[in-house]
């Protein structure tokens, strides 16, 4: 086949795929909208949130049906959504749902530096009812919802995730390479130069907590996520700031490691000291040069 004929066939096929995708969009829109119950999910802050509350101030909601920390493919998809999250929420509410516990979600999200909200479907029939859990096995994808003025929630559409789909930019880019997708398997670790990974959590210990929270929210424009007797979580540009009551002022960063025992021994050997112990795999450290940080074993 001559080059011009090959290019013409490629162009024709691209148009055909484009037209069929548009047709798929229209078919999904025309499918009956099914009313669903107001599911209750657990969240990393320790509380609960309803499906209706996930809409926040929007009428439309996107929920990513993520398989959790055990799936490196789902992790890569979520990494991609993290980069465009601030664009997505201009149009609709966006949440990632996994079967992991809230504690695991919180640690994993900090390690990946994710800033979209997450909910745990543990103990609910949500994924099974939506078709993303079958015979005990999880399946990745996305579900969309709409609410009406009466607060009723309607399931609008679903789409599956998998290598080659339109929901992860990696695959279309690889398809343009001579080798294609062959031999690629996503890896979870981000920082391949070090055993330590910096999370997006920063703790600020202050003497005058109410005044500090007022300054950070009203002057700097941080958003309050939640608050309890000891600390308040603020979010700002993808970073999490925990404002804690204390007798003195100090800032703590956070590092995650895979081999906690080895990391601890390395730090102690090189002059670091433990300043607080939460459990055997979660410690506060001070290094000899002024940096204070929380170290934990990543999920």
Describe this protein's structure.
The chain is an alpha+beta fold. Helices cover 29% and strands 32% of the residues. The protein is built from seven helices and 19 strands. A hairpin with a 2-residue loop joins strand 14 (231-236) and strand 15. The longest helix has 28 residues, at 3-30.
Primary descriptors:
6-stranded mixed sheet, 299 residues, 7 helices, globular, 32% strand
Helices and strands in order:
Elements: H1 3-30, E1 34-36, E2 40-42, E3 48-50, E4 60-65, H2 72-88, E5 93-98, H3 102-112, E6 118-120, H4 126-130, E7 133-134, E8 137-138, E9 141-147, E10 153-160, H5 170-175, E11 196-198, E12 201-206, H6 209-219, E13 223-227, E14 231-236, E15 239-245, E16 250-257, H7 260-269, E17 273-279, E18 282-286, E19 292-297
Parallel strand pairs: 4-5, 5-6, 12-15, 16-19
Antiparallel strand pairs: 1-10, 2-3, 4-9, 7-8, 9-10, 11-16, 12-16, 13-14, 14-15, 17-18, 18-19
Largest sheet properties: 9 strands, mixed
Radius of gyration: 23 Å
Strand content: 25-35%
Strand-and-helix sequence, N→C? HEEEEHEHEHEEEEHEEHEEEEHEEE
Summarize the structure.
It contains seven helices and 19 strands. It is α+β, with helices and mostly antiparallel strands. Strands 11, 12, 13, 14, 15, 16, 17, 18 and 19 form a nine-stranded mixed beta sheet that branches.
